[in-house]
Specification:
The radius of gyration is 20 Å and the shape is globular. The chain is an alpha/beta fold. The protein has a 6-stranded mixed β-sheet, with helices on both faces. Strands 3-10-4 form a 3-stranded antiparallel β-sheet. The protein has a two-stranded parallel sheet with strand order 1-2. The chain contains 14 helices and 11 strands. The chain folds into 2 domains: 39-156 and 247-285, D-Maltodextrin-Binding Protein, domain 2; 161-245 and 288-335, 3-Layer(aba) Sandwich (D-Maltodextrin-Binding Protein, domain 2).
Length: 339
């Protein structure tokens, strides 16, 4: 086990069963002139060139340069902890400082499920305004109280689209009989079932093998992730349905955040907003038909436009009633939001 010169507390030692080793520096951080650096470990499920990982790696490097040795972020993409829920358990336990649930946000934070209801979030501008405004502030406060984590920033992977191997999904009837892999949160299964398909909840690590073996007929992902995760190696078609908006977030162990200096807190949050902008640009810039074709068709996929309004109508009839009463005031706020 390695040691740093900075004082350590009982929460500094990495205790997870994932084979982590080392010391996390916690306690109150000094001003930037401090000579002995402390480390904050940041885990993400995949490495660059995944768009979010690229931005996170940039943030860690930028933080370290601006902190001038007083505090350091050590970013690990896909090497420290490889699964979303394990990362979040480690953050909550204080075994690592920073992480996020990636696509499993609604599994870890059920409150996020409202934003995943198909076609409820109207567009990117509305989503950005909600998460950077009062809704985001309220969720941050709630997550601090309930889960003991501090939201550094919200981001998203964009709207989800179907990827399949045998034929595209252009209208709802094309989903009949299809086995579609979904994230573990219930809202994803309800979306596929409501739209007419058969949902197969599955962790990402199992997806490629399942697709190759015919256990699933396809799945759904944002364009930026279809590319980064090389889905084109197991799927021939991408059908642009824009059915689930995919917000997620990066959080920090609350105790560790509270023990930082005011300067370090401000630097983290300011850089978080810059990183958020980088991820959003990477996500949104490819989430349209022409850009998706340009990105994916050279890799062997055929990109098709789906009948979005038909899917929207089915979702409103079959899926919305399940969640409207569950989320109450938050549902009304999202549905009526105007950016």
């Amino acid at each position: 086990m390695s040691k740093f010169t900075a004082p350590i507390t009982r929460r500094s030692t990495l205790r997870t069963g994932a084979g982590l080793a080392g010391i996390l520096a916690t306690g109150r951080a000094p001003v930037f002139a401090q000579a002995s650096p402390k480390k904050l470990l940041w885990a993400h499920i995949v490495p660059p060139p995944e768009s979010a990982a690229v931005a996170f790696e940039w943030m860690a490097k930028e933080f370290n340069e601006r902190a001038k040795g007083s505090l350091a972020i050590e970013f690990h993409g896909g090497t420290l902890i490889p699964k979303e829920l394990e990362i979040m358990n480690a953050v909550k336990a204080g075994s690592i400082a920073i992480g996020g649930p990636a696509g499993a946000a609604a599994t870890v934070f059920p409150e996020m499920g409202a934003f995943l209801v198909p076609y409820l979030v109207k567009d990117y501008n509305s989503a950005y305004a909600m998460f950077n405004g009062q809704i985001g502030e309220r969720l941050d406060k709630e997550f601090q109280e309930k889960y003991k984590v501090k939201v550094l920033f919200f981001y998203d992977y964009g709207y989800r689209h179907f990827w399949t191997n045998k034929s595209p999904i252009v209208e709802p009837k094309d989903l009949r009989g299809r086995k579609i892999r979904v994230q573990l949160a219930k809202v994803f299964s309800d979306t596929i079932a409501g739209l007419g398909g058969n949902a197969v909840p599955m962790a990402w690590g199992e997806v490629v093998t399942a697709a190759k073996q015919g256990v699933i007929d396809g799945g759904d992902l944002p364009i930026v992730n279809i590319d980064a995760l090389r889905v084109y190696e197991v799927a021939k078609f991408c059908s642009m349905t824009f059915h689930n908006y995919g917000p997620t977030l990066i959080v920090m162990n609350l105790e560790m955040f509270q023990n930082l200096s005011a300067e370090h807190k401000k630097l983290l949050l300011d850089l978080g907003r810059e990183t958020q902008d980088r991820v959003r640009h990477a996500t949104e810039s490819v989430d349209n038909f022409e850009s998706a074709k340009k990105l994916l068709e050279p890799r062997g996929m055929t990109v098709v436009e789906a009948k979005v309004e038909e899917f929207r109508k089915v979702a409103q009839e079959k899926v919305w009633p399940i969640y409207k009463s569950q989320f109450g005031a938050l549902w009304d706020e999202i549905a009526g939001f105007k950016s």
